[in-house]
Specification:
This protein has one domain: Tetratricopeptide repeat domain (Serine Threonine Protein Phosphatase 5, Tetratricopeptide repeat), CATH 1.25.40. It contains six helices and no strands.
């Protein structure tokens, strides 16, 4: 995505939310899960965020919590993802798989 397109996109709600998701992913990749969680918290709490955005934020927040060995919160986030309406099958599958991993780790 070009710089001008990215800058112009920051003026729309969806583009700002996508940018927050990307920032969260960058923090997670750089092994800063606490910072990623803070960004995902904002998106999850935002009732104006699209369902798909909230689902991605919840899923990614679950991964960040799991990285911190906060498996209770990871399970809660993944269960919440699975309760969301109109969730694409690939997201459901990924959430179920991650939920099983976290639960196995705690068994």
């Amino acid at each position: 995505m070009g710089l001008l397109t990215r800058l112009a996109g920051l003026f729309t709600k969806g583009a700002r939310d996508d940018e927050l998701l990307l920032q969260g992913l960058a923090h997670a990749k750089a092994k800063r899960p606490e910072e990623a969680i803070a960004l995902y918290d904002r998106l999850v709490a935002d009732r104006g965020a699209k369902g798909a955005t909230r689902a991605r934020a919840l899923f990614n927040r679950a991964l960040a919590h799991s990285a911190l060995d906060n498996d209770g919160q990871a399970v809660a986030d993944l269960e919440q993802v699975l309760k969301l309406p109109d969730l694409p099958e690939n997201v459901q599958s990924a959430a179920r798989t991650q939920l099983a991993r976290v639960r196995r780790r705690n068994a």
